[in-house]
Sequence to fold (650 residues):
Amino acid sequence: MSNVSSVLRNRSARIALIVLAAIVLVAAPLFLPAFANQTLVRIGVYAVAVLGLNIVMGYTGQVNLGQIFFVGLGAYVTAYGVNHDWNIVVVFLAACTVAGIVGLLVALAAARLGGLAIAMVTIALPIVGVPLAKRLDEFTGGSQGVSARFSDAPEWSGLYSDQWQFYIVLLVTVVAFLLARNLVRGKYGRAFGVVKENEAVAASMGVSPYRTKVLAFTIASIYGGASGFLYLAAVQYTSPETLSFGHSISLLAAMVIGGAGSIIGSLIGGAYYVFVPQLTNAIDPSFTTASQGAILLAVLFLLPHGLVSLPRVVRRLTRRRTARPTHGNPPQTTPAPPPATEPASEGLEKTERQDRS
Amino acid sequence: MGTFIQLVVDGLATGSVYAALALAIVLVNQATGLINFAQGGLAVLSSYIAYAFVQLGLPLILAILVAVVLSFFLGALVERFLVRRFERGDPDTAVVVTIGLLTLVTGIAAVIWSYNNLGFPSLFPLTSVEILGAVVSVRSIATTVTIVVIMVVLQVLFLRTKLGLALRAVADNPNSAALSGLPVGRLLMVGWGLAATLGAIAGVLVAPQLTLTPGMLDTALVYALAAVILGGLSSPVGCVVAASAIGVLENLVAVYVPLIGHDLKIAVPFVLIFVILIIRPQGLFGRKVVVRV
Fold:
């Protein structure tokens, strides 16, 4: 593993790796069967939603139980726009904007109460969202849902629809991930990190915790809206079931299991969201929820930083075993900084006050 | 007028169920600083346990008592083996733990009893009585009275007994409590056990009306959280008042404001929250938390 990371540090090797990955991603749908493409598309859809959740939760430390609401909102806006023959770029922007504005309004109120109020308020979003979607049947088609076909492959491309959808999702997902990566590594990412660690420290450094939380939540909502657009591109249909409470919990579980505060973790989370229910459904559908809870708790106990930290933990364990075979692994409850994506954290040493809690 | 009184009494009954759940949440929060999102899930599990004992042929009241006692131990065990590790750490991680627990408990209930609605026998007769010309169901009144009695008992426990004093000491300052010789860990288990007991009672009281499903109390949990936000996390009385107000208000709005109606009445407490949070961020009865650095 260590030689892998030293290779990654080499600039030209890294560029070569990125180019290789890009070629593989662009070429893959042409060779893969339709089912594999559809699965990859769905991973992309949920990876964007998980990424948004990660920005507000993993990076800023604000528990958000309503991310699926913004996915559903984005999907409905997309369906509405497509069925009214808007330009597809306008539809995409509308999906992001509407979700962002609603997210902003929710955050403006929720972030006022400190601590866990955002969690307590956002849990209501999917629970209010489902009856709301059923009620507003002019826009949403009620319980029946609404379908919108805009992601069929055009004639000139000579592609199958699943390949075309793959490219749409790939484009948006890659842009979303690059933007998120730059965001969390830059000025705002550091602000998020300080607010997560200690709001008083953030305030003393001139970073308003309130504004930072609202910003993070709004960005997360925009990602939710984008994910909703992609959802409609992939599934071409949405209904109130899309934004049910259970899905919101699954999204959160996917984020934690993939790795909170990690960009790659979001991708793993998206894959988890798609694969594991498929797997458990194949065994026994009634088992899905229980296994999800068990996996989530197991990850929290054994791998507090999610699956993305697995290589690091394995490396540490093996190194420790070779160095000091008798020394046990001390339980760790507060997350240590994840590797590359962690914003600089100067001046965030724990104070006595925090240890008291 | 008759409808109005009936709506208010029914609202108080549902409100008291929300209040019980909200109190359980406040109890856990006061003791450990956590919001237990699994409180509703645990209560559903308790109701299923009571259901199982009824199926085994136990009389209803006995089944409920057994389930309530088991819930106490269930809550204590959850604290000891699941939550303990995350109590002193990052509160957000701890919240995710309770969400994992909610998912797990819901899933276990679904595996054992399936997602189908199960009828739960009512503890109280389903008859109605006439009060001031309004027809009011006995169940609503009995539910309210039961929960009020339990709240009074809890209040006495906390304010008049040594155990209550110890629980409050641990909640206030675990380190000092430990230094004065209190078994902090065991008291935290008792706190969680009591919360689970409270949830169990709320569960079995509301189960006949909602019918048992694994997600039976998801909505009630949302109401309870709304009550907790409105009442303030530090104020049990505030929570009870807020929960009752929510119960009554949503019932009235559902009937008298056709725009909202029964399907959207859950939005009522949240509109209220938005308005109140803008005006009074610490909640109606909560104290403003001042953090010293």
